[in-house]
Design a protein that fits this description.
There is one protein chain. The protein has 650 residues and is α/β, with parallel strands linked by helices. It has three domains: 3-133, Chitobiase, domain 2; 139-486, Glycosidases (TIM Barrel, Alpha-Beta Barrel); 507-645, no CATH class. It is 43% helix and 13% strand. The protein has 24 helices and 14 strands. The protein has helices spanning 3-9, 40-54, 105-121, 154-166, 197-209, 225-228, 250-255, 264-280, 302-308, 310-327, 337-343, 347-353, 379-382, 403-409, 430-447, 470-482, 489-499, 507-516, 524-528, 532-537, 544-571, 581-604, 616-630, 636-645; strands at residues 17-26, 31-35, 72-78, 89-94, 97-102, 125-133, 139-145, 171-176, 213-218, 285-287, 331-335, 389-393, 414-417, 451-456. It starts with a helix and ends in a 5-residue tail after the last helix.
Amino acid sequence: MTENDILNSRLMPTPAVIERQPGHCRWAPGLTRVESCPDDRVRREADRILAGVLSRSVQGLDGADTRRSTKTPLHLAESPARIAHSQGYELRVAPDRVELIGGSAEGCFLGLQTLRQLLGLFPDAAPCCVIRDQPAFALRGLLHDVTRGKVPTVETLKRLIDRLSALKVNQLQLYIEHAFTFAFDPDICDAEHGLTPDEIREVEAYAHERFITLVPAVATMGHVGRVLSMPKYRHLAEIEATKTWAQMNWSERARGFTLDVLNSESMFLVERIWGDVLDAFSGPVVNICGDEPHDLGRGRNTATLDAAGRAQAYIRRIADTARFVQSRGRQAQMWSDVLVNHLGSEPRASARAITKAGEDAPASPQPPVLSRAPRRDSSLFDTLPGGLAILHWGYDAGTRYDMTQRFVDAGFETVVCPGTTGWKRILNAIDRAERNLVDFARAGLAAGTVGLLNTDWGDHGHFNALGCSMHGIALGASCAWSGTRESGGAAFDRRFARWVLGTENAEVVALLRRTAAVADHCETWTLLRTPTEALAETVNLPEATTWRRLADDAAELVRALDDARAARDGSGAAGLPGPDDAADLRLAARFSRVLAHRVLAARYGDVPGVRDPEDAAEVARAYAEHWRACNKSGGLDDVVEALSAAGIWD
């Protein structure tokens, strides 16, 4: 591959303009800052990159010693007059110097991420070039679920932030239902099952250093199951819980319970929850959620809301919550699904389309359509509080991408929200997630939305490891930055292999796609924990040939990941900072083999053609060890119990 080919095909996200210039910049043994923009965060990032990347290169490409008495100068500067977009930058690599001009300090920081990749691609001498770049979306975010069982440690969140900043992501939302140590009621959660205010402040400071805003996404209408299952709060639910949280299965927990929106005492609970959260998070934006209030008007308030209409009761509660956080100086965001149900031209279809599980959804009630005869005008918009941003989401073929334009036309700041499709799966459904990410990015660009917030949910215990979501996370970041220049597929996979897995062999990602293909058709974590006798009777599963192919592909993926790691360790090749995603993928591939063997044995009596079956108990123990290394221990017992019931844990 020529230098021009590398420049045009290996940078991630793909820059808007790359102009090749004559000559080379021979920057080994390194660069040195001689001018800098005034923001200390930019200077520190430049020093981190130069120390971390160039320290690995003291020999030239031909093996000759490249040490020199002087280093190539790196000039950093802000120039809004020269770079119109505040997050844009121009990077010039000349024979005798490197110049980075940003539209702001953030633009300089983002340009440094491109320089990091140039240093990794050309560790000794880079082709001279000019790169001009700016993002397609001003807001480029990731929502990470920290409440469905798996609560990451502070160090895990920091490693994720390192990875996100290198991908030019500038917002990280942490989704919380109960996984926070609330001062007003310590019985809700302890430090092993949630994040503490001090931990939030530490993570927030780390994110701020990297120009990432940390945002709380807190459920305070639907999905309040843990809190409303507690005897002291059960009277505040539309339909009272009859079980404790520990007694509920994962489907019941995922559905959750809905607050009684007509009870003023429930609003007092909302204010106490948000009061504690806002004391810990200091950023300007919060997500008040408001999604999937499954029980709204279906319990104690059925008669009242049948007569008065659910829409106004819902909007009043949204408005009350928004006004509370606004009184603390924050902008409120909310999910779009209830609005889609109410305003969509086909409310029944749209209700199905906005269910997270898509066609895999259990037979539980859908989020309510908010009136008996949904109107097709925008009158509901008129009652929403000012300054509210709409997070428009959907994850399957029924997603109402068309509603994106409607929200924008109604005057709302709108963010499109695709997903990584890893919930209830061992490996993420990569192909499904790719379609969703690319299509939502295009819909957002066409409508003129302000941002793209990728979502990484963890329904049913959050079994899949963070590295399993990284393909979708990286693709979402690339779509948010590059817009229509990013369409996924083989071209993206080559960049993903290089920067995330640290290998030039894109066949590794092709194997990953093949191993993950079954996740497009079924919830693999749900199947893995299904007892053998029930697995034998499960309907609508792929045929035996699919499971045999899965077993073989997963085995090949393990070998390919091992080969890639050995080659990377031997070469010292630089990838993006952050976690070792290959280790997560390797473990998921082994669990995929366990699943394939179990399905074949349960449904066909034996496992013909399957080579070297995995020791399921050993894989489960390795998973538990990995969990403890990356996450708090809370939630692991539920996973172990599920694996034990399936006969996998000994």
